[in-house]
Amino acid sequence: MTTAALAMTAMVEIPLRNALDHHLTCWAHRRGSHSWFDLAPLDTQGRRDLAKATHRAGAGRRQPTHGRIVAELSFGFWRFLLSRRYLTTLWIPALQHAFPNTDLDANSLQRSIENDVQQ
Asked: Tens of pLDDT along 36-67?
C-alpha cells in the first residue's frame, strides 16, 4: 500500500473507530457498565479479535487500557460491527448516533454506512 493510501485509510479509520467507540461506551454506561467490551453481543470471531487486541495492547508490560485496546482493533473489526447482524443489538441503540445530521431512517443509514465502509 502506498504512503498516500495508508494516510487516506488512517483519515477514515481513526475517526470512525473513535466515534463508534464513543457511542458504544455511552451505550454501556447507560447499562451500568464501564466498558462495552463485556456487553457487546460479539460472535466467536469478534471475541477472538477483542482478545488479540487486548493481548497486543498489554505487550511489553504495558497496561491494556481501553484506549490501547481500541487502537489495536482492526478496521475489519469495526466494519464487522456495522453489519446488518447488529442492527437491533448495537446499531439502533448506539452506533447510528455516530452518524448524525442525516435524514435517513436507521435501516437505510445502516445499509448506506455498511456499504460505504465495505467499499
From this structure: 999 999 999 999 999 999 999 999 888 999 99
Which letter, b or e, does each residue of 22-45 get, where b requires 16 or more Cβ atoms within 10 Å of its Cβ? Answer: ebbbebbeeeeeeebbebbebeee
66-98 pLDDT, tens digit each: 999 999 999 999 999 999 999 999 999 999 999
Kindly report the backbone phi and psi dihedral angles of residue 7, in degrees, each rounded to the nearest multiple of 5, phi listed first.
Answer: -65, -40
What span, in angstroms and rounded, lies between the C-alpha atoms of 83 and 14?
18
The rounded distance, in Å, linking the Cα atoms of 40 and 90 is: 7
Give the up-direction half-sphere exposure of residue 78: CA atoms within 13 A in the CB hemisphere: 25
Distance CA 66, CA 38 (A): 12
pTM of the model: 0.90
* Residue 53 grid coordinates: 487486541
Determine the Cα–Cα distance for residues 36 and 94; give it in Å rounded to an integer: 11
Q: Is the dihedral of CA 55, 96, 108, 5 positive or negative?
A: negative
